[in-house]
Design goal:
DH_dom, Dbl Homology Domain, Chain A, 420 residues, alpha+beta, PH-domain like, 9-stranded mixed beta sheet
Length: 420
């Protein structure tokens, strides 16, 4: 449905500018309107009327009672209302614009209203939806193996309104729409002949960009928080007499060495990288899982659940390991990044020792004495390079942060400095 067809359908006599630049501006505003129509009618309303409404009807008939609609669709109803309201406002702007013979563009009053809609409604509402998106995908993934839920999804996806789109394709639509708003607004701003109006549209686009950047930070923080929360319960911290065989402690004295709980050690940390490697230990190769945090490195041994006795795949992700009930026993102790040194094993030494794609992590104490050495083997040379790059970057970032703002003992994130 083009702008020309819209003009032909109007019963009112509207003025259409003969100025090519003015015409392009009208078309840019029309693109914002029509793309919002597609988003509202072909995506949001399909989610609501086909998927959400069907689920509600099934639950009224005592089917899929345990499926939580909010976990799948979040604030979908609110999104529909906001988008419909925005369309009405845009339509009024278009009619007012075309009713003016000169075709000057949106008035400042209309632009202020538009800015208010983005700041108070659209961005806020979409942010709420986007923060739930990752959890919604995980929830959907966990539900799909069920026969009853799978039948419900397939029945809905066969609807003509879906136009061969799957539920996953529709769930991501609000995220894609949010990222497109700045492009559409700047496209209009470029075609505005009045400088003040162009600046106002640029301000609105910048506000949406800022909202997107803030959202990305919140999503990353939320994903990290949820992953670390799951991991905290799966970590096993061994007491010193189990960790170090030389530390003989009679059973009657063990109560004097109460283990300090380390459960909260990772609670406020950022997980920078994680993955499976192979550790060379006493001529044996054992599977280990490494967790690189912003201040320390954990080397853990994977303990498989009783249900899964098969050897773990190299590319198995952390989420899947946690889902299968695996635990991670911390070997030795956390390695502070300001006490960590990396050594690359070149191809010649790797071939001689029979350890391809390997590198060494050395743990130093405050007197620069090496108190631990770990020979780790990656699945490929590229995986090895990635690990070394991540470790070197994390060490450099921590040392730079310490030089600018040294950590103090009163801080909950304090780790002892490597300097004497």
């Amino acid at each position: 449905f083009s702008l020309a067809e819209f003009l032909q359908d109007q019963s009112l006599q509207v003025g259409v500018t003969s100025d090519p630049q003015g015409r392009k501006r009208q078309e840019a505003i029309w693109e914002l309107f029509t793309s919002e129509c597609v988003y509202f009618l072909d995506q949001l309303m399909v989610l609501k009327e086909v998927f959400s409404a069907t689920l509600m009807n099934l639950q009224q008939n005592n089917c899929l009672m345990d499926v939580d609609s909010w976990s799948l669709f979040a604030n979908l109803n609110e999104l529909c209302l906001i988008s419909f309201s925005f369309l009405n406002k845009l339509l009024r702007v278009i009619k007012n614009l075309l009713s003016v013979t000169q075709g000057d563009g949106p008035t400042l009053l209309e632009l202020n209203a538009l800015r208010k809609v983005f700041e108070e409604s659209i961005c806020h509402c979409l942010e709420k939806y986007c923060l739930n998106y990752s959890a919604a995908l995980l929830y959907l993934h966990n539900l799909m193996p069920r026969e009853d839920f799978g039948s419900y999804v397939k029945w809905c996806e066969r609807s003509e309104q879906c136009r061969r789109l799957q539920l996953r394709d529709l769930l991501v639509a609000p995220l894609q729409r949010l990222t497109r708003y700045p492009l559409l607004l700047r496209n209009i701003a470029k075609r505005c002949q009045v400088l003040e109006e162009s600046r106002e549209l640029q301000v609105i686009a910048d506000k949406v960009d800022t909202s997107i950047c803030d959202l990305e930070g919140k999503v990353k923080w939320l994903d990290n928080y949820q992953k670390v929360k799951q991991l905290r319960d799966a970590l096993v911290w061994l007491p010193v007499w189990e960790r170090d065989k030389r530390a003989f402690i009679p059973e009657s004295l063990k109560h004097l060495l109460k283990a300090v709980t380390l459960d909260n050690l990772i609670s406020h940390r950022s997980l920078l990288h994680e993955g499976k490697l192979v550790l060379t230990e006493n001529t044996k190769l054992i599977d280990v899982y490494l967790f690189l945090f912003d201040e320390f490195l954990l080397i853990t041994k994977i303990k498989r659940s009783k249900k899964n006795h098969l050897r773990l795949q190299q590319n198995l992700e952390l989420d899947q390991l946690l889902k299968e009930g695996c635990t991670f026993t911390v070997l030795d102790q956390p390695i502070s990044l300001d006490r960590l040194q990396l050594r690359n094993i070149d191809q010649l030494n790797a071939s001689t020792s029979g350890l391809p794609h390997s590198f060494i992590i050395m743990h130093h104490n405050r007197y620069q004495q090496c108190i631990g050495a770990f020979i780790l083997q990656a699945a490929s040379e590229s995986a090895k390079r990635e690990w070394m790059t991540k470790l070197e970057g994390a060490v450099a970032a921590l040392l730079k942060l310490d030089s600018q703002q040294p950590r103090v003992k009163s801080s909950s994130l304090w780790l002892e400095s490597s300097q004497i």
